[in-house]
Amino acid sequence: MKRLKYVTVSLTAAALLVAAAGCTSSSSSKAGGNSTFTTIDETTTITVGAPMNPFNAKGNTFPGYDSMQLGFSKGAPDPNDFYPGIAASWSSSADGTSFTVTLQKNAKWSDGTPVTPKDVITSFAIKMAVLAGPTQASPTSGLDLASVTAQGSNQIVFTQVAGGKNLQFPSQILQQFVVPDEQYGSQVPADVWQTIAASQGTDATAATAAQKQLSTIATKVTAYAPPKDISAGPFVIKTISPGGAFLDRNKYFYDVAKISPAHVQFRAFSGNQQVDNYLISGQLDMAPYIAVATNIHQQILSTKGNQALSSPSYVDAEIAFNESVAPYNNVAVRQAIAYVLDRKAITKVGEPVSGTAQGTPSGMIQPLVNTWLTPDQADALNPYNPDTAKATSLLQGAGFKLVSGKWMLPSGQPWTINLETVNGFNDWISASAVVQSELTDFGIPTKTSVAADFATYQTNMAAGKYSVGWWLGALGPTPYQAYFRYWGQDDGYTQTGTGVSHADSVASGNWVHSPEVYTDVPNMPQVNPGDLTNTISLQTLAEQKANVATLAAVYNFEMPMVPIWYYTNVQYVNTNRFTNWPTPATGGLLRQPPGVWMMQGYIQAK
Fold first, then answer.
1. DSSP 464-501
2. What 8-state DSSP symbol labels residue 414?
3. What percent of the chain clears pLDDT 70, i.e. is strictly above it?
4. pLDDT-derived band of residue 313, with 50, 70 and 90 as boundaries?
5. Which of 42, 461, 477, 527 has the highest Cβ tally under 10 A?
């Protein structure tokens, strides 16, 4: 599988380091030489002619290289723990309703002009418009943001919406891109913040009109093509071609002394096999996670200088259901499928190098279960070990009948499954063959369909065209992120401030269609999982534990998705040309792009 944008958010397994000779601690390095760092960017499909615009879903920009954020997540249990970016420091008010950012003292754009609060204010106006627009250019679920104001020449104050108490507000702010007002200011009207305020107001008619205005702004600004790349990051785009992108070091970058490579070359690629070939031939200095078979992994490591770096990854590969389609609205059916599927056997074929079969289904990756649940709470969960007898009993109890070795729906019609997956996602495709075999052998004839690309897959999934398909869940490292994946926007929940609303329509983005309130979970009178998920976003880590245990129990019984494996973030580096790579001991840094590694003083040319 190619790592997706929301995974970089998105990624706790034991950290390993394979053949890690040559990796040392962080240090500063004098910028110099004419070295070129060659890599691929899994988040950007290089398209000649696409705008160099981070708000464009298909834009030619490279996060951590030329596209800069206020900060970069450390992937720690505390979601507000970030590495500095354009923001040098930050602080929250005592009541948590406002958040103040101080810009880097020497932050400049690649044309030599300073980064100012005005740049930040324009950037957030654009982001708020994009979130109200017809499409979202990034995986952000929303911003509980009411206003952004300058405080002096290098500080910005962000204020939450009225009544907002989101403890992850700093994280929401710090992860956003900043673009130059010099280019983007003309793309938004001068009164855009009044429109944003109206969109959040209590006058429903005015709010609807304001949202339409913001949508119009979003359409305009996401299509905008800057005439040149003006970057506040360590690099700036020089050329884009069918073969890739070439970036030069930004001599005005605020910490340029730490940036050793003079250039970055991004190779274009169309699939995992092409990346495999780049690695086996020693052409890449670094490659982010891709799905590889065991023999390909060994071939890559046999190339001189190649090493693997493994780090924690907070994400599951799961099989998801559209519960608006019978029989997947029946909890017994979802439980039965969980009993049929042998997670270890599927993982062995689908993700043998960087996958670990998920243990007890909880909505979180297995290592987090031990962090958030007590031993008694964890032991109370059903492990769903493969058991076709239990699956048979569940289906028979739900009115299904086994006729000549094939299961019939309660209506008497044959039950068949079409399992959806994506072209280029090698692990999902390989695993699908095992899933297909296991379900068919059990008496549910199953076939696999492959979407042309992930954009098509997402569109069809959101439109409710799939009944059963692969998905990514358990996004971490926080329980809120994990459970929002199930009971968030994909299930029709919208969270703003302290409240949450729910809509069951496809138009609202709901393709999961699970009940708003569960009444069948053992030992629980009723549970609204979307409301409870929102609640934990308003709680401290200690306060969350009881509610996390409830959500884990609800997931374990309802099985909105069947987890198959969780990932380890296996990346490849080559030590022939560069040294001083980060190690797993650096924590979440390995889940950021190498441009961010360089900002921390890693990667020096030999």
1. T--SEEEEEE---SSHHHHHHTTSSGGGTEEEETTEEE
2. B
3. 92
4. confident
5. 477
Distance CA 195, CA 539 (A): 31
Beta strand ranges found along 143-277 (DSSP E): 145-151, 155-160, 177-178, 235-241, 244-249, 263-267
pLDDT of residue 267 exceeding 50: yes
Model confidence at 134, in pLDDT bands (50, 70, 90)? low
Segment 151-160 mean pLDDT: 96
For the chain, give percent helix, strand, coil, nearest 5: 35, 25, 45
Pairing label, strands 417-422, 68-69: unpaired
Q: At what angle do helices 331-340 and 388-397 cross, to 10 degrees?
A: 160
**Quick count: other Cβ atoms within 10 Å of Cβ 163?**
11
Mean pLDDT, residues 347-358 taken together: 94
Cβ within 8 Å of residue 420, ≥6 positions away: 448, 449, 451, 457, 460, 461, 466, 468, 469, 470
Is the Cβ–Cβ distance between 314 and 477 less than 8 Å?
Answer: yes
pLDDT (mean) for 101-120: 98
List CB contacts of 127: < 8 A, sequence separation 6 or more. Answer: 55, 140, 143, 176, 177
Amino acid at 166: N
Q: How confident is the model at residue 542 (pLDDT cuts 50, 70, 90)?
A: confident
In this prediction, residue 140 has a pLDDT band, given cuts at 50, 70 and 90, of very low
- The tokens describing 538, both together, are 């308003």
CA–CA dist 544, 373 (Å, integer) = 11
Q: Where are the alpha helices (DSSP H) in 138-187?
A: 169-174, 181-184
- Please write down the HEC assignment for all residues of 269-327: CCCHHHHHHHHHCCCCCEECCCCCCHHHHHHHHHCCCEEEEEEEEEEEEEEEECCCCCC
> Is a pLDDT exceeding 50 seen at residue 30?
no
Q: 216-242 b/e with 16+ CB inside 10 Å = b? A: bbbeebbebebeebbbbbbbbbeebee
C-alpha separations of 440 from 346, 395, 560 in Å:
14, 15, 21
Tokens of 492: 């029709």
Q: How many CB atoms lie within 10 A of CB 4?
A: 17
Residue 321 backbone phi and psi in degrees, to 5: -125, 145
Sort strands 145-151 and 493-496 into parallel, antiparallel or unpaired: unpaired
| Contact assessment for residue 8 and residue 256, using Cβ atoms and an 8 Å cutoff | no
Residues 30, 259: Cα–Cα separation, whole Å? 7
- If you average pLDDT over residues 530-556, what whole number do you get? 93
Averaged pLDDT for residues 558-579 = 95
* 440 within 8 A of 288, measured Cβ to Cβ: no
DSSP structural state of residue 145: E
* Distance in angstroms (rounded) separating the CA atoms of residues 201 and 64: 35
Cα distance between residue 68 and residue 93, in whole Å:
25
Q: Which residues pair with 402 in a beta bridge?
A: 407
pLDDT for position 361: 97
9 pLDDT band, cuts 50/70/90, is very low
Question: Which pLDDT does position 13 carry in this prediction?
Answer: 27
∠ CA(167), CA(172), CA(173), 5° rounding?
110
pTM metric for this prediction? 0.81
What CA–CA distance (Å, rounded) separates 473 from 466? 17
- The two structure tokens encoding residue 163: 């009544």
